[in-house]
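I would like you to sit down with the pair of lines that follows and say whether tokens and residues agree.
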Amino acid sequence: MKRTLPFPLPDGDDALFCLVRHGETDWNRDKRIQGHLDVPLNDTGRRQALAVRRALAGIPFAAHYASDLARTLETARLILGEDAPLQPHPGLRERHCGHFQGLLPEEAERLDPQGYARYASRDPHYRPPGGEALLETFTRIGRTLDELARAHRGEAVLLVTHGGVLDAVRRHVEGLPLERKRDFPIPNCGLSWVRWGQQRAILAWAETSHLEAPARDEIAAM
């Protein structure tokens, strides 16, 4: 059954994005740095994704995109079903965390104390060996959403992505400095609605009323 969108479609060249962070993984639970590594959802994450499916059922999205990493693709498929059109997009990936990927914070600090200090302090220009600088991720996310907004002017689009991407989106919209410690939530499978284009606005952020239990929000340095 078709349902109406919770917000009106934008006029002009803007798009309406519903952004969903992927469901919980065991690495989220353990606070292990995931980055571009492929990690499956755990049972909690799968239940969260199915709760998003129920919450968004019947919403008339013009298109569905997801980061091409395993945890986001699995979340998106649980939300949409196997037969719904889904476009993987590498521009929606999490930050590449270089040689810190796969490590617990304390392990990353032992591996590279000076580098990890810069990483944890949100130094925009620090690039972990093999990875991305925070500023590079921020720029990539802005460019990707600009591209998708141009392709979907006046339409509503579902984006299944990552905590670091949502962090960048909010900072883009509100003009927040990259160095500033995050003080807004980014829970697993939270729903955020954003107008993007010539006019940018946060319409709703990190809604979790559809989830059965409080969702994890462990990101500190993304």
Observations:
- Strands lie at 15-21, 63-66, 87-88, 156-161, 191-196, 201-207.
- The longest strand covers residues 15-21.
- The chain has a mean pLDDT of 96.
